[in-house]
Predict the structure of DUF4880 domain-containing protein.
Amino acid sequence: MSRHGGAGSRAEREAAAWLARLRGPDSAAHHDAFEAWYVADAENEAAYERLLATWTASAAAAETPAGQARPPLVPRGGGLRPWHGAIAAALALFVLTGIFLPRAHDIADAPDRVMLASALGEIRTVTLSDGTRATLDTQTRLQENFSQDERRVIIESGRARFEVAGDPRPFIVEADGRGVTGTGSFDLERLGGDLSIAALSGEIRVSDGGRSWSIVPGRMLQTSADGPARETALPRGASQWTAGILSFEDVPLGTVAAAINRYNATAIRIDPGAVRLRFTGTLHARQPEAAARTLAAAFRLDLSRDGRGDFFLAAPTK
């Protein structure tokens, strides 16, 4: 029997199924149902967080030479515990649904086109087939589409950091008709029709139809489908997101809450009377309660929780 009891075994199996769905091509369609399942029972929340932590750690280990050479682990005494069975169920779902694992480029159904995705709250690093390291932020979807002439990656949604490997072929990231060519390292975030590119090292070039820009390290460019481009200095701490730390500089509370909510099933909601307050500081992306308490203390807001477990921040009643 699982050390978490019968409910834990049930929650672990369901968590494995949810993790598979959230890594699928229609993950957005499942978000509301997942959130309802996540907050319905503390066992659900605990099981999902355990599985996500195990999966993230396994993904990191798989990228090391030792991890790639290591045989599968089997518990002493034979057989699988229910928790191992939950992980196995998740892996089976990944295979059956065509969702690829950290070494996705080794098992893709087409040799030159590979889909990569991250789940809700997951930050994972993978190695592309040319040796480039890509770190995927929460709920990010990429398509690796390499050819003999170029290395092209399509970012469908989310944010990723690319540490480009040396190769005579150009490395191009495509997003909504715009292209980013880089020889060093850079962050690229796509939210709907908006695109943000942060240059960290090397030479970064951005093209959008007849327009083009070169970005030097320490600068970022923001473009939209229907507006002018804007280049600014890279905000202090902006590169810490790969460690799960989000940095804000004079940002409205509504925007801060939206950024935290991208990582968590439990949301932070802001009263309309406080949504325009501006925050400067850092928050842990995957700790919504700590973030809510920090914001409440910073602006002397009332903090409460609703029936779904979401955090609600409002100006004190007079």
About this structure: Residues 42-62 form the longest helix (21 residues). Residues 1-7, 60-84, 93-111 have pLDDT under 50 and may be disordered. The chain has three domains: 5-97, 104-234, 239-314.
